[in-house]
């Protein structure tokens, strides 16, 4: 998903994913591990959802991806739904990730895809535990038996929920046909009046579908670039890797 404007990072004449980090546009770092997995045969198709100054993203990536447009910025659930025209009837699993995550690795993607296949899960969400980092990420709400119940975005949390250390990190694997059925049920009854992708977790629970929250091995990978501070933090990590 790469349709957002990037208000917090000061985007005016280019989308957030075209800001540079460690010498390359954010979107190039984000797509790189998926391209490698496509070469391996684990990933079949890559589809990028574009919107704000989306032509710049298309010019940057070229034939590395297919594209769909999100003309109106109505939230992440609405963004993901735009791919229905291309893959809505296909069998298999769909990976969904934000285009501003530059640190996810092949191993992380492979882990969540493999777990979804091995456990025959309808939905996998990826999480990290942190008391201080990723404060603006959604909180993972669990029942007394430890099962995931829903994700509550920060703006919709109460004071108790704000203190939850388990954070949703915007990396999902879902059964493709179930996914687009679930997306059609998402409503915009929240503080931002947007269609949240995270609402599919509650829909899966209500449908009694098998879901699992999987903790990634390296929490730093979960850094999404929303602000200049995020960009500099990600750049420091990337430069060390290089």
The total count of helices amounts to: 9
- Look at the structure and give the mean pLDDT: 95
Instruction: Please write the string of helix (H) and strand (E) elements.
Output: EEHEHEHHEHEEEHEHHEH
CATH superfamily: Spore Coat Polysaccharide Biosynthesis Protein SpsA, Chain A
Number of domains as seen in the coordinates: 1
Proportion of residues in extended strands: 15-25%
Distance between the termini: 26 Å
Radius of gyration: 17 Å
Number of strands: 10
Query: What is the CATH topology descriptor?
Result: Spore Coat Polysaccharide Biosynthesis Protein SpsA, Chain A
Indicate the percent of residues in helices: 25-40%
Please give the largest β-sheet. 4 strands, mixed
Which word captures the global form?
globular
What is the architecture at the second tier of CATH?
Alpha-Beta Complex
Low-confidence stretches: none
Strand order of the largest sheet: 5-9-6-10
Tell me the name of the CATH class: Alpha Beta
Report on the structure:
The chain has helices at residues 26-40, 54-61, 76-81, 84-87, 106-118, 159-162, 176-183, 199-206, 228-241, and strands spanning 20-21, 24-25, 47-50, 66-69, 93-97, 123-129, 139-142, 148-152, 166-175, 211-215. With 242 residues, the protein is an alpha/beta fold. The chain has one domain: Spore Coat Polysaccharide Biosynthesis Protein SpsA, Chain A (Alpha-Beta Complex), CATH 3.90.550. The protein has a four-stranded mixed sheet. The chain has a two-stranded antiparallel sheet with strand order 1-2. The two termini are 26 Å apart.
């Amino acid at each position: 998903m790469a349709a957002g404007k990037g208000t917090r990072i000061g985007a005016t004449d280019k989308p957030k994913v075209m800001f540079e980090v460690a010498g390359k546009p954010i979107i190039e770092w984000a797509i790189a591990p998926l391209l490698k997995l496509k070469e391996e045969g684990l990933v079949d198709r890559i589809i990028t959802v574009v919107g704000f100054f989306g032509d710049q993203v298309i010019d940057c990536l070229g034939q590395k991806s297919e594209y769909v447009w999100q003309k109106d910025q109505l939230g992440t659930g609405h963004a993901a739904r735009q791919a229905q025209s291309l893959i809505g009837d296909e069998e298999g699993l769909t990976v969904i990730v934000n285009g501003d995550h530059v640190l996810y690795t092949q191993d992380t993607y492979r882990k969540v895809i493999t777990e979804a296949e091995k456990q025959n899960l309808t939905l996998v969400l990826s999480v990290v535990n942190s008391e201080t980092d990723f404060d603006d990420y959604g909180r993972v709400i669990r029942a007394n038996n430890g099962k995931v119940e829903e994700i509550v975005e920060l703006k919709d949390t109460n004071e108790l929920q704000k203190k939850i250390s388990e954070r949703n990190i915007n990396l999902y694997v879902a059964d493709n046909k179930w996914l687009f059925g679930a997306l059609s049920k998402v409503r915009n009854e929240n503080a931002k009046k947007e269609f949240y992708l995270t609402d599919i977790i509650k829909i899966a629970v209500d449908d009694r579908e098998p879901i699992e929250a999987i903790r990634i091995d390296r929490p730093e990978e979960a850094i999404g670039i929303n602000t200049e501070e995020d960009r500099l933090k990600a750049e420091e990590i990337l430069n060390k890797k290089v």
